[in-house]
Amino acid sequence: MVKINKTLAILIWVTIILSIEVLAKKSPRPISDTEIREKKQNCYSEIELYVTFYPNY
């Protein structure tokens, strides 16, 4: 009986922890296509700037 209760308690804790992780990962709002394009462009600009200043790498 004690072993069943202990196993059940562990199972409940694992379920709670996984639920918290899933809830924490959700974004409060979806990212728009415009935001994605801006982030990509900024990234490409930084790469281009780096390549311009450090051409041997």
Provide keyphrases for this structure.
57 residues; 79% helix; mainly alpha; 2 helices
Total beta strands: 0
What's the pLDDT, averaged over the residues?
83
Into which percentage range does the β-strand content fall?
under 5%
Are there runs of 5+ residues with pLDDT below 50, and where? none
Query: What is the string of helix and strand elements?
Result: HH
Number of helices: 2
- Alpha carbon gyration radius: 23 Å
What is the helix content? over 70%
Structural class: mainly alpha
Principal-axes geometry comes out as elongated
- What's the N-to-C terminus distance? 65 Å
Largest sheet: none
Number of domains: 1
Give a verbal description of the structure:
The protein is an all-alpha fold. The protein has one domain (2-53). Helices cover 79% and strands 0% of the residues. The protein is elongated, with a radius of gyration of 23 Å. 0% of the residues are buried. The mean pLDDT is 83.
Please describe the topology of this protein:
Elements: H1 2-25, H2 33-53
Concise account of the structure shown:
By secondary structure, the protein is an all-alpha fold. 79% of the residues lie in helices and 0% in strands.
